[in-house]
Amino acid sequence: MAHPATRHSTDQIYSVLRTDVISGALKPREAMSEARMALRFGVSRTPVREAFKRLVDEGFLVAVPQVGTFVAPIDLAAVHNSQFVRETLECRTVTLAAERIRDADRRRLEALIEEQAAAVRRQDRPEIFRLDEVFHAEISRIAGYSAVWNMIEGVKAQMDRVRCLSLETPSWSDVILQEHRVIAAHIMKHDAAGAEAAMRAHLRTVFATIDAIARDHADAFDDSRLTRDAP
User: Fold this and answer.
1) Domains of the chain, first to last
2) What pTM value is reported for the model?
3) How far apart are CA 203 and CA 226, in angstroms?
4) What pLDDT digit, counting tens, does each position of 72-93 carry?
5) DSSP 3-state of 97
6) How many whole angstroms separate alpha carbon 147 and alpha carbon 151?
7) CA 184 and chain centroid, separation
8) Distances in whole angstroms, Cα of residue 102 to Cα of each of 106, 131, 139
9) What beta strand segments (E) does 54-201 contain?
10) DSSP states of 196-215
């Protein structure tokens, strides 16, 4: 069994590197060195090796025997799978949110939209991404199913990598903000059907941009496992 200090270090390293892969701070196909990361985190190579193994198991890194470890390209099949999960669950929660929203919830949604608008004006990409997450989590909370967002978070990492790439285009954050405004407006009017349609359109927007993103970041994607019958 790993020493508690080593376990703690492994968890921290894993969390930081996972975030770096999703955000694009670590680029797809970038070589990963245990020695370099041990130096970065000020630890021995053992917790780094354990963190690497977890990231390989989850599809964030790829270990090539006799060659090395690399940041995995974005798995388009996983993007499509996470889209299916998100659309199925969030289109249901948004209808419930529209039915159940109260005055305090309205104020919270309005405040979140204004916070996101301010982040878009600053072009603060990390904050735009964070507030996007908070907005969707808040809808699940209003619906009465906060745990649903935790389930969604567990399956959408590859989609998040695409979302982070999309934010490199300034106009994209404006599109997301406007779509959030429309969703929120329908929820606040108790318009369940309108909220569901707006959410579905919003979640499918990412697919309208994948081709463009793939052209601009060809090395970032791996479509070798993409099935022909994917939605």
Assistant:
1) 4-72 (1.10.10.10), 75-222 (1.20.120.530)
2) 0.81
3) 19
4) 999 888 888 888 999 999 999 9
5) helix
6) 7
7) 20
8) 6, 21, 12
9) 61-64, 68-71, 74-75
10) HHHHHHHHHHHHHHHHHHHH
